[in-house]
Amino acid sequence: MAELPGKALAEELAAASRDESRTTPIEDVIAAARSPGLDDDAVHRLVSRLWVLERMFYYVYGGWGQGLEINDFPASIKYLFSKQIVDESTHEMLYLDTLLRRGCVKTQKEAFQHPYGGFSVDSGVAYYVFSLRNLATYPHPIRIAALNLGPKIVELAWMEALAAVIADPALKQVFASQAVENRSHIAMGRRIVEEFVERPVDQELCRWACAIARQDYRRFLHETGDFVLRRETPPPPVARVRVTD
Ligand SMILES: [Fe+2]
């Protein structure tokens, strides 16, 4: 079989993400979970923030899905993406179920109203979500390269490490159960990049988009870690610019 055109690029993006994966600010949460352990309210804060991000994926993928109709992509790409939407939706429900089962909230409605579960436009989670949503204007393989070979690789690593140090069996399973999903998303990202990212201009776009996604995900993890550990997140070290697109 002939060499797939994007094979080297897929490996390059994945390697860069693996290098970064155990260096993010969520390591402080993993350390705290190991010792002294996270109290109930810290778990509530952590699961709530992760839930906010997961539920925003409906918004991100909604925009990406519309873009899939613009270009003529093979059915395999659409199938893999629809599977990813379903996975992310069950992931969102998993976090909500966790909040309900642990008694953090009594109803789904209460989860939305609780201050821990609110979405604020001026936040790291919003920054990351809008950044991903903005990729709707790029061809599908580029945004899949950015997310599935970027933050997904970082997520797989920290989530496995967190699951390993959590003592509570049910909570451990919440995080451990996502490894299969993450691995499959990473594998499909690799597959799409290998097969469909060929031209140098698209390869450059993938590098750019993947680096941006990782950087913005890192900011989300920083904010989440600080929220869980009750620390103050410093403002991002970038100049504020007006976005006009
Ligand atoms: Fe997920």
Question: What can you see in these coordinates?
Answer:
- This protein is an all-alpha fold.
- The protein has a single domain (7-228), classed as Heme Oxygenase, Chain A (Up-down Bundle), CATH 1.20.910.
- 72% of the residues lie in helices and 0% in strands.
- The protein is built from 11 helices and no strands.
- The protein has helices spanning 7-21, 27-34, 40-68, 75-101, 108-113, 124-134, 140-148, 151-165, 169-176, 178-196, 200-228.
- Helix 1 (7-21) runs antiparallel to helix 10.
- The structure holds fe (ii) ion (FE2).
- Fe (ii) ion binds next to helix 4 and helix 10.
> What Rg do the Cα atoms give?
18 Å
List the total number of helices: 11
How many individual β-strands? 0
Order of helices and strands: HHHHHHHHHHH
Q: Cofactors and ligands present?
A: fe (ii) ion
| CATH-defined superfamily | Heme oxygenase-like
User: Which architecture does the CATH hierarchy give at level 2?
Assistant: Up-down Bundle
What CATH first level would be assigned?
Mainly Alpha
